[in-house]
């Protein structure tokens, strides 16, 4: 529920109560990955009546009360048995996936990664917090467990358990392409590493005319002889 609300609440996390009924409707009517049935169907033994599914021109048929109870009891029994079977199967598959991916991914310098940041800012709740920050670039690999990230102007050493790879659409589209310059330079280009490719933006060229200094003509200065006695000659 919290993960679903985190996508719709505002930045101040103040309108989550208004989005709660809609989120509850989505969860109760959505097919559960483990049970393969919506939660509403598992509880009540029938599909959730929604405006999209209701036929407002026809009234539902009325069955005898006893027959309805017996059919509902049998339906719920079958559903619960199927839910138990699917839950056991899903748990086994989840364990297999975890065992196959238990090895931590290896990171290299210049890889772009997301950093898990569980800290919650003051005034916000943990339920709606976005825990993955980044992406950041790896500038140094100390071991399989520790790397140094470039985070703005500072570099921070973190544990690899807090990292997950960042895969951009640009890097996936350029996968498999090789450099055609033939220079033999061992430095990998931007398409062979995980650096985000930033195309240069056009620079506006402003043409200015050369400034012409104005010319001034000096007037003749009349020479005046100063006499301390107060008389001019």
TrEMBL record:
<feature type="compositionally biased region" description="Polar residues">
    <location>
        <begin position="167"/>
        <end position="194"/>
    </location>
</feature>
<dbReference type="InterPro" id="IPR050951">
    <property type="entry name" value="Retrovirus_Pol_polyprotein"/>
</dbReference>
<dbReference type="GO" id="GO:0003676">
    <property type="term" value="F:nucleic acid binding"/>
</dbReference>
<dbReference type="InterPro" id="IPR036397">
    <property type="entry name" value="RNaseH_sf"/>
</dbReference>
<protein>
    <recommendedName>
        <fullName>Integrase zinc-binding domain-containing protein</fullName>
    </recommendedName>
</protein>
<feature type="region of interest" description="Disordered">
    <location>
        <begin position="153"/>
        <end position="212"/>
    </location>
</feature>
């Amino acid at each position: 529920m919290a993960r679903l609300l985190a996508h719709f609440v505002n930045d101040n996390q103040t309108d989550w109560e208004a989005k709660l009924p809609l989120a509850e409707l989505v969860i109760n009517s959505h097919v559960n990955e483990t049970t393969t049935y919506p939660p509403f169907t598992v509880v009540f033994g029938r599909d959730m009546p929604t405006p999209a599914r209701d036929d407002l021109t026809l009234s539902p048929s009325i069955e005898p009360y006893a027959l309805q109870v017996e059919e509902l009891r049998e339906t719920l029994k079958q559903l619960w048995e199927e839910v138990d079977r699917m839950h056991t199967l899903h748990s086994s598959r989840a364990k297999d996936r975890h065992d196959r991916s238990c090895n931590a991914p290896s990171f290299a310098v210049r890889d772009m990664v997301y950093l898990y940041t569980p800290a919650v800012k003051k005034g916000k709740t943990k339920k709606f917090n976005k825990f993955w920050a980044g992406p950041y670039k790896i500038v140094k690999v100390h071991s399989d467990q520790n790397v140094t990230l470039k985070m703005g102007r500072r570099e921070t050493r973190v544990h690899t358990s807090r990292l997950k790879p960042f895969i951009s659409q640009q890097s996936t589209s350029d996968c498999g392409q090789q450099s055609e310059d033939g220079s033999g330079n061992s430095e990998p280009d931007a398409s062979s590493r995980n650096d985000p490719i930033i195309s240069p933006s056009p620079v506006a060229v402003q043409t200015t005319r050369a400034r012409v200094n104005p010319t001034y003509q000096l007037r003749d200065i009349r020479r005046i002889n100063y006499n301390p006695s107060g008389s001019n000659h």
